[in-house]
Amino acid sequence: MIAVNRKLLRPASAARAALALLAALLAFASLPAAAAELTVTVDNLRSAKGDVRLSAYASAAEWPDNSAAQNDKVAPAQKGGVPIHVGGHSPAAARRAGRYGDGFFPALAEIPKLKELFAMMKSEAEKAGRDPSRIELSCMGRPRVDELKALEAIGVSRVVIAPPAFDAEGLTRGLEKLREEVIEKI
Q1: What is the pLDDT of residue 22?
Q2: Nearest of 57, 66, 148 to residue 111 by alpha carbon
Q3: Quick one: 22 and 108 in the same domain?
């Protein structure tokens, strides 16, 4: 996937993508245990100060409280820790994003549905005493100037689009076309 963040075209980092995938997979789950697991995972990620062994535990509830061996330490690369982007396009995902997320990523581009989900997310953030304007909004989309401007108008700051091809030559041509026809015009 390619993330278009305002006027920048850049691949998302592997770590951020992995955490977004984790959140997205758990957000789609309807079982209460999965929701509880997500809550514990987010709490642990938010409290990580470089001493959490992420790969050694089957369940987030089994994470140690900052006591891992030096060679397995994971320190957040940025101030404020690891950003948590909650994926999913259900009401439950919107509520989770409002309560816990630094970002919300419904994997769709239907503006009426996005507006509905964003309103749910904002309401839940306010109930949790959080500022909803600090939650980054992302979605899927097509690389068209009119669509990207419409998404920006409803607060979306990151649009993920499918790659234009899967071979090196096709990717090069497709990204050049994207730059000329879209990026330079927004």
Answers
A1: 53
A2: 148
A3: yes
